[in-house]
Design brief:
Elements lengths: L3 H10 L4 E6 L5 H7 L10 E6 L5 E5 L12 E5 L2 H11 L5 E4 L15 H9 L3 E4 L1 H9 L3 H30 L6 H14 L2 E2 L5 E4 L22 E10 L7 E8 L6 H27 L5 H14 L41 E4 L2 E3 L4 E3 L2 E5 L4 E3 L8 E2 L3
Helix pairs in contact: 6-7, 8-9
Length: 390
């Protein structure tokens, strides 16, 4: 159940009058998770208003009158378009500034879930609509102690599976047996099932030029893994515990005894960028300074730019991690977006700078959890490319 008092406290701190939740056809999963709504019918529009002061209010369709009965507050019913407009006017009476799942200029698209027409409808009632992005982060993206424990459990298993996947690739190469990217990917998924892990999508297994594609997806006819190949593994998953959260890493290995300098040199730049981002976050948290997602991205990006690889860093530095692998909190992004959300205690995010060339790509990814006094990496950290046949 939603903590109305906690939300009201944050609304007052942000000088907002209310938070207006809206949905139809389950288009806003954030609303359901934040409000604690279960399986409810949503074939008609519903609105739920949480005010900075005062009791909540609901607006629901007459034929789905019980949709929000699991939430506290008075209820207004509508059926016709005219009743909807009149009901919304009554719902918003006494409210001027309203937070919604909206982002000006779609600058944070991950929370921009309310359609433009509904925003126009609310604005037509002379209400100021502001973004709920910071509120969403506070009430959706922050982890509970149980979620952190589930993350650490998943991390231990995934770290082990990752290393065994590298070993499997090396064994096939040594024994001159064919193993494709796709076959290794499917083996990893088998290990997930055996160890009680879930994932929303299959891991990335990429060799050679495919490693230069950040979102590469191996198919059944994918290349075989051969001696002399650079092998990138991007693996994410979570436990089966209720409300469990993801663990998401990327490691790189080389199918040979000695890693060629052309790969090692690029990895050193990526590692330096990763470590610069980690240091930036840690120093800020330990000093009690507010740090925003875009600032961390810029710290990593500057390292890669100075090394002459700036045009090959075509991906943000990191993303929020939650019940979905790409969560609803702050991303480390000053490239695709300019994410001004603060990295508040209770958040976890990836730090994953990469250099993506046409002939190969290298990424190093770790997860970082922020508490009140520090920020820590939650799993193993790669120091060098793994020489898999050494």
């Amino acid at each position: 159940m939603v903590s109305i008092r906690a939300i009201q406290q944050e609304l007052r701190a942000a000088k907002m009058d209310a938070w207006l939740f809206y949905d139809i056809l389950h288009r806003d999963p954030l609303a359901y998770r934040i409000l604690g709504l279960g399986e409810v019918m949503a074939k008609r529009r519903w609105f739920y208003l949480l005010r900075a002061r005062g009791a909540p209010r609901k607006l629901v369709h007459r034929i789905e009158a019980g949709t929000l009965d699991g939430l506290p507050g008075s209820k207004i019913l509508y059926a016709s378009q005219q009743e909807l407009t009149a009901g919304l006017k009554k719902l918003l009476a006494g409210v001027r500034t309203v937070a919604m799942q909206y982002s000006p200029n779609n600058s944070i698209p991950y929370v921009s879930l309310v359609d433009a027409g509904t925003v126009e409808l609310v604005r037509g009632l002379r209400k100021k609509v502001v973004s709920s992005a910071d509120l969403v982060q506070l009430f959706e993206a922050r982890w509970t102690p149980e979620q952190l424990a589930a993350h650490l459990e998943a991390g231990e298993k995934i770290d082990q599976i990752t290393q065994r996947a590298f070993q499997r690739a090396a064994e096939h190469v040594r024994e001159h047996r064919t193993l494709t990217e796709y076959e290794l990917q499917q083996w990893i998924l088998e290990q997930f099932r055996a160890h009680g892990l879930l994932t929303d999508d299959a891991p990335i297994v990429a060799v050679g030029p495919n490693s230069g594609n950040p979102h590469y997806e191996p198919k059944q006819a994918s290349p075989a893994i051969r001696e002399g190949d650079l092998l990138l593994l991007d693996i994410w998953g979570k436990t089966r515990a209720p409300q469990s959260v993801y663990y998401d890493i990327t490691w790189v290995g080389y199918l040979g005894r000695t890693v060629p300098e052309k790969y090692a040199a690029v990895f050193r730049v990526v590692r330096e960028a990763r470590d610069a981002a980690l240091a930036f976050v840690r120093d800020a948290v330990r000093a009690g300074r507010r740090v925003q997602g875009w600032q961390v991205d810029r710290a990593a990006r500057e390292v890669i730019r100075r090394a002459g690889y700036g045009k090959y860093f075509v991906h943000r530095t990191g993303h929020n991690i939650g019940q979905e692998v790409h969560g609803a909190g702050a991303n480390l992004d000053d490239l695709e977006t300019h994410d001004t959300r603060a990295l508040v205690p209770g958040l976890c995010f990836s730090v994953e700078p990469g250099i993506y060339r046409r002939d190969f790509g290298i990424r190093s990814e770790v997860n970082v959890y922020v508490d009140k006094r520090d920020a820590r990496v939650t799993g193993a950290v790669q120091a060098e490319i793994l020489p898999l046949l050494a």
